[in-house]
Amino acid sequence: MPWSTRELAELAGTSLRTVRHYHDVGLLPEPERRANGYKSYGVGHLVRLLRIKRFADLGFSLAQITEMDDTDQTSDDALRELDAKLAADIERLQRARDEIGTLLRDKAAAMLPPELAAVPEGVEVSEAERSLLVVISQLLGPGGREPFAEWMRGYERTPEDIEFDALPADADEQTRADLAARMLPYSVQLREQHQGRLLRGEDVRGGPHYVQRTIGEALRDIYNPAQLDVLVRLSALLPDDTR
């Protein structure tokens, strides 16, 4: 027994409005009419309607479905193309979820590029350190990002770092000199591990001289006079081949 438009819509799990729209855009052929003028749908219409509905549910636009014929080859090609797009979307969304997770754990990381925001879990980073990392992240060229990310992944905050952060502006000379000397071994170790690759080379933004000037300005803005003096003393203590 032939089906009416309402019966066809119910069988396909869709609406009368949708069936009529598919007629209007040429996706679903118009059926013959009965003697009383009502449309008369058959199995072929149901199969076609279900096919359209399935492809639309998968994410194909009606324009894309219109371009497909009823052969398996065109459907397979379109499905492979959609599958590749969905795979790329999933990868992009997973990166977004990972970044959101990082931001939920550490809201200050919002200022850093995703690949540079991952300070090891349990390591407290001071506001001054975070501010300096933001500046550095904007100076890195393509060749410096991975070494810097590697440094971030292996970052360890030492007791001297904590002492440096708390150093008052009026700290006496002996205190500053002693702190610089105690910070030296770990600084040398870091430089040797990364072979001087951090913020070195011609691929940094603006070139080496611009980087040196920008970092200097950032340090003067972030740290107090006693802390800056410790950094100057530390730089003077570093062996020439690690500066």
TrEMBL record:
InterPro entries given in the database record: DNA-bd_dom_put_sf, MerR-type_HTH_dom, MerR_fam
Q: Which UniProt keywords apply?
A: DNA-binding
Q: Which CDD domains match?
A: HTH_MerR-like (cd00592)
Q: Does the keyword DNA-binding apply?
A: yes
SMART domains, alphabetized = HTH_MERR
Claim: DNA-binding is one of the keywords in the record: yes
Tell me the GO molecular function terms.
DNA binding; DNA-binding transcription factor activity
What range(s) does the HTH merR-type domain occupy?
1-71
Q: Any idea what this protein is called?
A: MerR family transcription regulator
Q: Which organism is it from?
A: Kutzneria albida DSM 43870
